[in-house]
Amino acid sequence: MKGQEVNWLTWDEAVKLSETEASPKKMFVDVYTDWCGWCKKMDKDTFQNAEVAKYMSENFYMVKMDGEGKEPLTYKGKTYKYVPSGRSGYHELAAALMQGRLSYPTTIFLDEKMNMLSPLPGYHKAQPFLNIAKYFGDNVYLDKDWKTYEAKGK
């Protein structure tokens, strides 16, 4: 079933919304690269899933971030830039959000104040991904650890 399209924002657009909205949403960042096959597969299989797209759009500012992007980006008052390295390079903010582990795709959940909740490396199918998204989106993480939440769901 074809779902609604996710309204992807740039980092700067999402930051502006989180600073100006009366009740800001959490932020979800999809860190990808142009050459990453699993990133494209996750876009198609997971983010375009009707249930995932609806839930994510209602509960998160959805950001696409090129892990090798060249534009400077600001986070919590610090400007992050592109760092040339080998044949390509990486963006400092992507590396910071992925906690130094440059693996693609990595999805990142931030709270309403843009504090790190968790990076989630790798490809995830729609249903397992939705369970993780709801753990953060529905604020379950505030009073239940992941293992307890995950065990309850099975």
What does this structure look like?
The strands form 3 sheets. A 4-stranded mixed sheet has the order 2-1-7-8, sandwiched between helices. Strands 3-4 form a two-stranded antiparallel ribbon. It has 6 helices and 8 strands. It has about 150 residues and is of the alpha+beta class. The chain is globular.
Low-confidence stretches: none
Radius of gyration: 15 Å
Strand share of the residues?
25-35%
In N-to-C order, the SSE pattern is HEHHEEEEEHEEHH
Largest sheet entry: 4 strands, mixed
Distance separating the two termini:
25 Å
Q: Assign the structural class, choosing from mainly alpha, mainly beta, alpha/beta, alpha+beta, or little secondary structure.
A: alpha+beta
Number of DSSP E strands: 8
Overall body shape: globular
Mean pLDDT: 92
Reconstruct the topology from this structure.
Blueprint: H1 11-20, E1 26-32, H2 37-47, H3 50-59, E2 60-66, E3 73-75, E4 78-80, E5 82-85, E6 88-91, H4 92-97, E7 106-110, E8 116-121, H5 126-137, H6 146-152
Parallel strand pairs: 1-2
Antiparallel strand pairs: 1-7, 3-4, 5-6, 7-8
